[in-house]
Amino acid sequence: MQPKVDFKNIYTGSQALEKAPKIYGIQTGIEGLDDLFFIVKEEKGKLIKKTLGGLPAYSVINITGVNDTGKSLMAEQFAIEQAHKGSKVVFVTVESPANFVAASLQIRATAMGYNFKDFEDNFILIDAASSYNLRENIPDLLATLAYVISTYKARFTVIDSVTGLFESKEMFARAIVRRLFNFMKSWYQTSIIVSQKRSGHEELTAEAAGGYAVGHIVDGTIVLAKELIDSQYKSKIYKKPLGDIVRLFRIDGCRLSGHDTKTHFLEITESGLVKIKEPISGGEEI
Fold it and tell me: How far apart are CA 142 and CA 184, in angstroms?
């Protein structure tokens, strides 16, 4: 078959900009995170770095790490913050049934000082954990997502976790993530997707189960890690006693805005909230 030119997908710069949304910050509800994203503006002939005040709007951000590093907590805090502000949030749960996720969201909201009853119906949960069809059939999942987003006028989507959509077929991970990414862009969603790392992956790399497919395709990746203090060397570096566990946080790239590049300590509080703390190397935060 003779190759054909696809004229409908050719744009000049100005034509593309006509469809481009304005990028602004979306507050995450996660202490210490929002000021780590920034933009550069020109003022009086000088370029000035200004905090974005949250995740870039319309971005698809991947949160990855091994278990017990705070990935789902971060995703839930983000979802609760948007729902509390009055936005509809689609929560695609792939790991745990919807009723258990709703209970977790309620607990998390209470820890954040919010009355869950006031905004509980701003969440629309899609239970792919209980549905083999939604978990294994991406076209049906996307059709369900499209229905929910259009019906409820949702602006935010969380998927926890995307790894569950290709756990038995990792060779298709790239294709699945690409379809989800294109879908989120076409529906102008600001989206958090959670992905799992294998225990053998280097702690602070963006690689997730399925290889680098997830991190390569999305707009940005947040990497979480934990480390046991089992040597004097680590004790000295992290300034923690032997036997402690430190959790770490790093932003591994973001296409839509500038970002802090340091590795930070991460804390999971007794009430189950994630906080981003100071950089491990010290120095000024943005």
Answer: 10
